[in-house]
């Protein structure tokens, strides 16, 4: 299922962190494939809706799923959610997202602590003064007890204000103070690294720790992760903390994560999209996968090559065929992933006219070249460079999909 590009790619050396549930292990870092993570947006206390969404996210390819754990009801629900997922045969590791009261919830509902494979701890939201250190220690001790991994996730919007104030005061006392924006970035990195070292001092090994420093702007994110990569060997989780909605969120996430991953920085990613009303939560998984696949780091889904269309193409039919082919591949991939694992690397072409259509179709594993405006209403189909059929008529999409299905069955069977 997974392919990794290594030639010309400098991987930032990090500890390998194993996130486990039963016999299922997801490894973050250590040169392993970059892991895709997602997060539910249901009320965790609503077990039915949360289980339904976790199943959808896992089916889409999310390898870790994070849940909000903010109340005793949510903490107790985690146990039931885990049990229902196991009964459904879904062993995706669950990550508990804790803010403010995580130390209490993990202590008061130990079954929740045991059901989670990883805890997300925000150093800016664990308490103030000595209480912060005490609460943090409780969460780390709990992770040690139950074998959970920990992500220490610092956010620009919830940075430890005491740390920031101290660093700003130190900066102002210098003969030549740095710009406050520089101090803010340094404070974010300091919070992450000092918290990680604190966790190690409490006995949590480095190979159970993942770091993140999330902000909302691309340039700042790039600088933060380059600083983290230079100063540590912890596994790194990438993502903009609030990417945005629609094309803005997709473009910002793709730009930021693409640059860092191409530099060899990043071991797990999450694309934090604001869903459009009624849109599927799985969109963030799709975008994360496509970022990794576009960089040649992993293969999740057959690649569809399709032209943008021009005055030569019969636009509506061509667009419909390209869209239906993409949807067909995504719908079939969960089954193919198990029965025909090599199918993820398949290349499919759906082209719109005679200019580039036959050439691109011949270069794909399987491709179709539609007739353009004024051309003969026949679409040749090529399999690995050889013309095997000519399709025409209203059922062209169904027949092409059937040919793809047959190609997968005969080519990628184990």
Over all CA atoms, what is the radius of gyration? Answer: 24 Å
CATH class of the largest domain: Alpha Beta
Average predicted confidence as pLDDT? 93
Helix content, binned percent: 40-55%
Low-confidence stretches: 1-10
Q: Give the strand tally.
A: 17
**Main beta-sheet annotation:** 8 strands, parallel, barrel
CATH topology-level fold name of the largest domain: TIM Barrel
Separation of the first and last Cα atoms: 12 Å
Strand percent estimate: 15-25%
Adjacency order of strands in the biggest sheet: 3-4-5-6-7-8-9-11
In the CATH hierarchy, the architecture of the largest domain is Alpha-Beta Barrel
Shape, please? elongated
State the fourth-level CATH superfamily of the largest domain: Dihydropteroate synthase-like
How many H/I helical runs? 13
Kindly give the count of domains. 2
Topology as H/E string? EEEHEHEHHEHEHHEHEEHEEHEHEHEEEH
Binding site for [4Fe-4S] cluster: 307, 310, 353, 360
EC number: 1.17.7.3
Catalytic activity: (2E)-4-hydroxy-3-methylbut-2-enyl diphosphate + oxidized [flavodoxin] + H2O + 2 H(+) = 2-C-methyl-D-erythritol 2,4-cyclic diphosphate + reduced [flavodoxin]
Pathway: Isoprenoid biosynthesis; isopentenyl diphosphate biosynthesis via DXP pathway; isopentenyl diphosphate from 1-deoxy-D-xylulose 5-phosphate: step 5/6
